[in-house]
Structures are given as structure tokens and as C-alpha cells.
Design brief:
Elements: E1 12-17, H1 21-33, E2 36-41, H2 44-54, E3 58-62, H3 70-78, E4 84-90, H4 94-102, E5 107-111, H5 115-126, E6 139-142, E7 145-148, E8 153-156, E9 159-160, H6 165-175, E10 182-183, H7 184-192, H8 202-213, E11 224-227, E12 231-234
Parallel strand pairs: 1-2, 1-3, 3-4, 4-5
Antiparallel strand pairs: 6-7, 7-8, 8-9, 10-12, 11-12
Length: about 240
């Protein structure tokens, strides 16, 4: 459990891992003005140390860090933290975006970027989940899957699945409408944010993660089905 905070920052904790120190300072300044407690890291090792020490709500992660690169940092962070990871990647580098998402990142923003847009993205990820307080019947059962909304836990065959927050929220969105096909845009609006702009294939990457953790085939046939030309649906089995 995270120790009780003693600082006066209402927005949450953020680690900015960026090797360009002037850029890191500028981002940190804008976030601090918005009420966040911000720590900076300038190498991959420093980023990991900061995540361990700060237990942040959000990690802003440049993929081009010296030492350990951002992809490896993201993989290691995912093994020890549920914080949201927002990766920074070079303009037009689609492969970097997909690699970052495959490593467990929740969102990305391309360089060069507007710091105000970055701050807006941080607020967007912190608004997840957007479902408000869990209902009284806050446990859903879909097939052999048990979804504990209040406890933020997914169980299958009495085993707790190690899902990230985004994967959990995606599964919650699908389970809220069993047998109903949801488009990628609908899932983005429910899990990311209605103002999110970017490649809708981010949904496909996270669905792939979910299927793997559910022990299902990449192409479907399990609880999560692909609806060609539309998106995805959850089918109780």
C-alpha cells in the first residue's frame, strides 16, 4: 500500500522521465502549476528508481532514455506498478508507438508536442475509469470470469489476473454489454476519453494483451470476440 501523502499537491504524483533536461523541466513546471507533485528522471535507471520511490499515478516516459531505453523501462515498470504510462515518441515513428503500447504503455504523444496537450493527456488518463462509484452489485460474472469492480480485481479459475488499469477498464467496458459489439471508438470513449485523438489501433494492442492474459488465442474464440468491420464483443461461455 502507498504511504499516506504528506504533500499539499492535489493532482497526484507524476514522474517525468526525459533525458532532455530543459524539456523535462518545462513539462514539470506546467504540471506543478496544475497541482501535481512532479519528480524528474533523466536515465532509464533513474526512472525505475523514481517509480519505486514515488509510486506515481502517471509516468511520462521518453523512449530514447540513455542506459535502459524506454521500452525496457516500461516492461520493468509494468512488473511492479499499476501507474499509467504515457510514452513520448518521435514524430511519425509508428513502430515506436506500437512497441511502447505492446510493452504496457497506456497512451502516447508524439514529438514535437505541445506541453499543454501533454498536460491535457495526463488529466485524461487520470479520469479513468469514468464509471463513477461502483454499483452495489459490484461483482460481475461472465462465463468463468469474475470481475470485482469495487476491489479492482479480475479472477479466472480462482487465480487473480495481473491486469494493468487500462486492461481492467477495457474488460469492464466489454463486460457491461455482453454479446453487444462495441466499436473501437466506443471503447476509446469508455476507457480512454471522449477527447482522445490518435490511432484507434491502440484498442487492438490492449485487446491482444487481454487475450494473452486470459489464456486465449490471439485471433479470438474465447470470451472476447472480434467483430469484423466493427470492433469487439464479450461472449459468455
Amino acid at each position: 500500500m502507498r504511504a499516506e501523502r504528506t504533500d499539499h499537491h492535489s493532482g497526484g504524483r507524476i514522474v517525468v522521465a526525459e533525458d532532455e533536461k530543459p524539456l523535462a523541466q518545462m513539462v514539470a513546471t506546467y504540471l506543478s502549476r496544475d497541482g501535481f507533485h512532479v519528480e524528474q528522471a533523466h536515465t532509464g535507471v533513474q526512472a525505475l528508481d523514481s517509480v519505486r520511490a514515488e509510486e506515481p499515478d502517471v509516468l511520462i516516459l521518453d523512449l530514447g532514455l540513455p542506459g535502459l531505453d524506454g521500452i525496457e523501462v516500461c516492461r520493468r515498470v509494468r512488473a511492479m506498478s499499476e501507474c499509467y504510462v504515457l510514452i513520448l515518441t518521435a514524430r511519425g515513428s509508428e513502430n515506436d508507438k506500437l512497441l511502447g503500447l505492446a510493452a504496457g504503455a497506456d497512451d502516447y504523444i508524439t514529438k514535437p508536442f505541445s506541453v499543454r496537450e501533454l498536460v491535457a493527456r495526463v488529466h485524461a488518463v487520470l479520469r479513468r475509469p469514468r464509471t463513477g462509484n461502483p454499483p452495489q452489485d459490484s461483482v460481475r460474472v461472465v462465463g468463468d470470469l469474475t470481475i470485482d469492480l469495487a476491489g479492482h480485481e479480475i479472477r479466472r479459475a480462482d487465480a487473480v489476473l495481473p491486469l494493468t488499469r487500462t486492461e481492467f477498464n477495457l474488460l469492464v467496458a466489454l463486460s457491461a454489454a455482453p454479446n453487444r459489439a462495441l466499436s473501437r471508438r466506443q471503447l476509446i470513449d469508455a476507457v480512454w476519453d471522449t477527447s482522445w485523438v490518435g490511432d484507434e489501433r491502440i484498442v487492438d494492442v490492449h485487446i491482444g494483451h487481454l487475450r494473452r492474459k486470459l489464456g486465449e488465442e490471439p485471433d479470438g474464440g474465447g470470451l472476447i470476440e472480434t467483430v469484423r468491420g466493427v470492433g469487439y464483443r464479450m461472449v459468455p461461455r
